[in-house]
Write a structure and sequence with these properties.
The structure holds two protein chains of two kinds. By secondary structure, chain A is α/β, with parallel strands linked by helices. The longest helix of chain A is centred in the C-terminal third of the chain and has 12 residues, at 76-87. Chain A has a single domain, classed as Beta Polymerase, domain 2 (2-Layer Sandwich), CATH 3.30.460. Chain A is globular. The model of chain A has no long low-confidence stretch (mean pLDDT 87). Chain A is 19% helix and 32% strand. Chain B is α+β, with helices and mostly antiparallel strands. Chain B has 15 helices and eight strands. In chain B, the strands form three sheets. Chain B has a three-stranded antiparallel β-sheet with strand order 1-2-3. In chain B, a hairpin with a 2-residue loop joins strand 6 (289-297) and strand 7. In chain B, helix 4 (85-113) runs antiparallel to helix 11 (246-270) and helix 4 packs antiparallel against helix 14. The chains are: A alpha/beta, B alpha+beta. Chains A and B meet through strand 2, strand 3 and helix 2 of A and helix 1, helix 8, strand 7, strand 8 and helix 12 of B.
Chain lengths: 117, 358
């Protein structure tokens, strides 16, 4: 199942899935430069039923900020940090967004479509 | 403060762990990753679907068959490419052999971490037999690119089937030896029992997967819960242990070797004749949209999320790897452990670093 949510509702959505016993699968981003949008995709799965849920939130490319869900699912901590590395999306309330997989002095975000190596 | 790695044999590659200690006890262990990051996801965007295929086997080099399986599976699902039945059987046989080989390395290296240097030599000896078999069909020994969209690139022959059928009883005998030599060993038991408990709740919150969750009482395996390929046609069990400790994870892996042998045996007996490659368009363009495909790798759930904008190159390839999530729970769960136990616990997660870093 896949749904789109308002960027302000991502934490609420995570709490809802948490109450229903879902496990976090992944958090990732996507760049849509033509629409001036960045998208954050949250994947969840249920161990007992095998059900999968994904929800997406679209935020402006210029002001790429969204609340962190790592307080609800601590596993999101690393996924969000990685997404920050690759897309430059700021997860508000995240404990540490310093470069994670990229070199420690990295100032670039390689998965943005306008990134030139 | 103790700096573990990045060049340390116990970290199985280039992983660094920054450990704050109080005497022998771990106060905080922070894994620092990215030393062999290659940006596979970006590479996916600047080459065609076909050209990206070899990349997928270079994440977890120990069980690369299952990784290529996830990617070809995703593309086949999106492009509605049919896989021939014989090819599905070949995929199952080679994937399961690969899983056994991977567990053997994981097992040997784990015992080596605990100070037992002999078992890894036994494990490598047995793994060699699998690698010879896989090399005879796939052409290489680790980073296979054997699966293709619609099937596999080379047919297996009677010699290969015979080789598998000979290997199954041989390996079963060896498992008895492993049990007598290692599993029942009192020192091993003392090093692993009760060490590194991970509750089912922690597994859920961190999205852990594979033998790690099955050692914590969660009966989840992609092959059963989201059946792909033809796994639903085989009779096999998912080993689950309730103890949540490192020993439980150890036993899950040993049982999985047995179950994989069962699958190989059944698949070799039932494999039909026929073509090995389905019809695939010469220039592959996928319909616009997202497709997800997950496989059960030796270390857990590997999810590929591909996004196409209708062009020859992928718009985005997301690779969600099992070791990444399995390591992410290390910081929380290792708190308060003795450093020697923390290493035994880290080895029980069976990490492959290129898989974490991608």
């Amino acid at each position: 199942m896949e749904v789109t949510v308002e960027p302000s509702k991502v934490v609420e959505a995570a709490q809802l899935l948490d109450r229903h016993g879902f496990a976090i699968d992944a958090v990732t981003g996507m760049d849509w430069p033509k629409q001036e949008l960045l998208e954050v995709i949250y994947d969840f799965l249920h161990f007992q039923t095998g059900m999968r849920v994904a929800y997406r939130a679209r935020i402006s490319r210029k002001d790429a900020k969204i609340a962190t869900i790592s307080k609800v699912f601590p596993g999101a901590d690393w996924h969000e940090r990685e997404t920050h590395d690759f897309f430059g999306i700021e997860f508000v309330g995240h404990r540490d967004l310093s470069p994670f997989i990229l070199p420690e002095d990295a100032t670039y975000h390689p998965l943005l479509k306008d990134f030139q190596a | 403060m103790l700096n573990l790695g990045p060049q340390h044999p116990a970290t199985h590659g280039v992983l660094r762990v920054k450990v704050e200690m109080d005497g022998e006890f771990v106060m905080k262990a922070e894994p620092i990753i990215g030393y062999i990051h290659r940006m596979h996801e970006k590479m996916g965007e600047n080459r065609t679907w076909t050209q990206f295929l070899p990349n997928t086997s270079r994440m977890d080099y120990l069980s690369s068959m299952t990784y290529t399986h996830a990617f070809v599976g995703a593309v086949e699902k999106a492009a509605k490419i049919e896989v021939t039945e014989r090819a599905e059987y070949i995929r199952v046989i080679t994937s399961e052999l690969n899983r056994i080989a991977s567990h053997l390395v994981g097992w040997g290296a784990w015992i080596m971490d605990l100070g037992g240097l002999t078992p890894i030599l036994y494990a490598f000896d047995d793994r060699e037999k699998i690698l010879d078999l896989l090399e005879s069909v796939a052409g290489n020994r680790l980073t296979y690119c054997y699966y293709r969209f619609g099937g596999v690139c080379k047919d297996i022959d009677a010699d290969f089937i015979q080789g598998c059928l000979d290997f199954v009883p041989y390996m079963r005998e060896r498992l008895k030896l492993y049990k007598a030599l290692v599993t029942d060993n009192i020192i091993l038991r003392k090093r692993l029992e009760g060490i590194g408990p991970i509750s089912a709740e922690i597994c859920r919150k961190y999205g852990a997967c594979g033998p790690v969750i099955r050692g914590s009482g969660i009966n989840y395996d992609v092959r059963k819960n989201e059946p792909y390929s033809i796994y639903n046609q085989f009779d096999f069990d998912i080993p689950v242990y309730q103890e949540c400790d490192s020993m439980a994870r150890y036993l899950v892996r040993m049982d999985e070797i047995e179950q994989s042998l069962r699958i190989v045996e059944q698949a070799c007996a039932k494999i039909p004749e026929g073509p090995i490659l389905g019809k695939v368009p010469r220039v592959l363009k996928l319909p616009v949209g997202d497709t997800c495909f997950a496989t059960e790798c030796a270390r857990g759930r590997f999810l590929v999320r591909i996004t196409s904008d209708g062009k020859e190159n992928p718009y985005r390839v997301r690779l969600r790897t099992p070791c990444f999530t399995n390591l992410s729970l290390f910081e929380e769960t290792s708190q308060g452990m003795m450093i020697a136990d923390a290493l035994a616990f880290m080895a029980s997660l069976d990490l492959v670093i290129p898989d974490i870093d991608r």
